[in-house]
Amino acid sequence: MHTRDLDYRCGDTNLRGYLAFNNDARGKRPGALVFHEGLGLGDFAMERARRLAERGYVALAADMFGERKQAATLQEVSALVGALRDEPATLRARGRAALAALAALPEVDAGRCVAIGYCFGGSVALELARDGAELKAVASFHGVLSTKLPATEGAVKASVLVLTGAEDPLAPPDQVAAFKDEMRAAKVADWQLVSYGNALHGFANPAADGSIMRAALYDAQADRRSWAAMHGLFDEVLA
Amino acid sequence: MHTRDLDYRCGDTNLRGYLAFNNDARGKRPGALVFHEGLGLGDFAMERARRLAERGYVALAADMFGERKQAATLQEVSALVGALRDEPATLRARGRAALAALAALPEVDAGRCVAIGYCFGGSVALELARDGAELKAVASFHGVLSTKLPATEGAVKASVLVLTGAEDPLAPPDQVAAFKDEMRAAKVADWQLVSYGNALHGFANPAADGSIMRAALYDAQADRRSWAAMHGLFDEVLA
What we know:
Chain A has six helices and eight strands, in the order βββαβααβαββαβα. By secondary structure, chain A is of the alpha/beta class.
């Protein structure tokens, strides 16, 4: 397993991602983006990138905040996430910069890339899909599903998989219903949404318990199931 | 693969199920019930029973109408299904009779049974779960999710998996929302619900196209995915 930082830019912003891949493998491999939570790029997204690398992907844990900034307080989370939510064009551009950096690597089959994200990062993965990015599939884990720029008809090329806790206060039933309506209205060719009963926000992150994120709780069962559902879709679209 | 009819009774009603299992296998195996659609026990449920038998289950495609009645018209479907929906106690008793007949077989590990169902049969599987039947898990494929007897707190022992088409007119968004509320209120320990985008009623049945069932359409992708999701859960709870 080879891991290293990968620096790339979006406009004037320096972004410092984390790359993981099997350097014994030969030939081009599918690429996978991992978008971090509101806390910034840290151990959790890196660990998921390594797991994807173990499955044969060239995985890039992207940096959405610049200079690999990490939030230490809820106020910082709100400021960093809020700034990007308020400017979805910037958010999408940063996500696309990560995709471009990944796709440009000699080890990556640029036509076979996927993206996943957690919480805020789930939104980023969905925003890339809405933006028509060249991704085979995206998976959002306990992500916020609302957007300032709903998908337009025919725009989404990726297969979309939403993995959400039925008790996630950041993705309540009304938001889930609105997301489904968005997918319908945009005539998205392939989308699925899984609701995990009893699961709260942050169900996939063992560090959720006791973190500064409110209403977050790790759920080992939902973590395992959602990871398997993701691989099920990815194996299908990359076959 | 051994297949044969299996007769059993519920009160005065003679029920004629269809049994499938691998008769080269030794020892007790998990049991699986398959509940048919509103058309009655026919080729489709039998084929699913054989598939489950190939995976190591002793599978019983149950007969919910008696004497293996099959409906030829929508009026007959309505009459047969309506009579049972109006009397949920009878519906549950017939489902339990199938479970008892399966569990009594010497090849079956009675403590390791699961149930699946399609359309009307999905409702039957859910009714057994609501009734607290000794099932490790139930999976409903494009089933109606509403009930006259909502689950009471703590009653449901089975893990519950609902696989539903986002465009199924028999399980519209309000019904899906009400089902989730029922699961929450009953504090069901393990439940999941998957919405397949673009999928209509009957998505798992290749015979749905052009059948007398309204608004039904086969969807090979949703069929494959839902079958995999079912095995994912069953493998987990039977491990």
